[in-house]
Specification:
five-stranded parallel sheet, five-stranded antiparallel sheet, 7 helices
Length: 242
Amino acid sequence: MRVILADDDQQSLETVRDFLKDITNIEIVAQCQNSEELVETVIRQKPDILLVDVQMSKKNGMDAVKECLMFHPQVKLIFICAQHDHALEAFQMNAIDYIVKPVGENRLYQAIEKAITIIMYERKESPKIIIKHLPIKDLHGISYIPQQDILFIEKSGKKCLIYTEDNVIETNENIGTLLNKLDDSFFPAHRSYIINLKKIKRIVPKNETYLAYFDHIDQQASISKLKINEVKDKISQFMKSL
């Protein structure tokens, strides 16, 4: 995703740039420090996402953003401003998000994730489904994993392992944080496991617990005997909704 940053505060620019540098599918193509430069750069670069503070010199910031939209209406807007003053006008322009400074890392990641999800949806021919992504921090930065590809997540020591059919992704994020980012297809079936209920092939009892099996992978996930009835009920609900 091609991104332009626009802010006349150099420290704010550097903070946002530092937060974004570890996101593997983000490319910062330009940085602008006044409104005229912003309009010229958007026309030339045609970014996917614009992160902008409207309190800039040489031209009214909101007018500049509106001018950008005239030339490049597909760009997704994320406003990063010192005050709430322009929030209403921003959302009337279909802004993805409006962040009030100081910018928090997780807050910015949430806005970027939302923008990426919408862009990916718009690029697909079929409008039937929006593919949700799980943003995770790994050894290489920030990665976005399609939630529909995740089979289960296992807590392993101080780390978590995210299992898909093809890969096992390691992250230092805790299991509770990951659960809060997932949709209702996922269930904490055990203190050390989050399971994608839509991906379970079969459930087999083993000693004092249960094992969930999945297609195309040899690893299993544990289900607590205290959670087994709730797991079965939720799977039944998913089956009825198909």
